[in-house]
Design brief:
There is one protein chain. This protein is 25% helix and 35% strand. It has helices at 2-15, 47-50, 65-74, and strands at 17-22, 35-42, 58-61, 79-87, 96-107. Strand 4 (79-87) and strand 5 form a beta hairpin. Helix 1 (2-15) crosses helix 3.
Length: 110
């Protein structure tokens, strides 16, 4: 658990973001979504900021948050495509608005 926390801190610090994890069950995409990461802060000038990811956006993760962070950590110095969307208005952060879904390229710092 401690190693996971260190990974989480290191990746968030390196890419300039913080998140809160939500587990959602979507009728449309239930085969695909395990979790979404709600972006709770973005550091100006950081990799997430440069990719156009903003506070309140959600990253759709096809596996676990830990696997996503590990992948980012392993891709240092490379470009990574990330699927981003927004919560549906008035859904109480329980549903993704798939019309807002987009893929952004994140430049992971070395």
């Amino acid at each position: 658990a401690f190693e996971c926390m260190r990974l989480q801190w290191r990746v968030q610090d390196a890419l300039g973001f913080a998140y809160q994890k939500h587990s959602l069950v979507s009728e449309v995409m239930s085969d695909r979504i395990d979790a979404v990461l709600e972006i709770t802060s973005v550091t100006a000038g950081g990799a997430f900021d440069q990719a156009g990811i903003q506070k309140g956006d959600v990253i759709i993760v096809e596996n676990s948050a830990e696997q996503f962070l590990t992948m980012l950590d392993e891709q240092r110095g490379k470009d990574v495509d990330v699927t981003v969307a927004n919560f549906a208005p008035s859904s109480g952060q329980q549903e993704i608005d798939y019309e807002t879904e987009r893929v952004v390229t994140l430049q992971v710092p070395p």
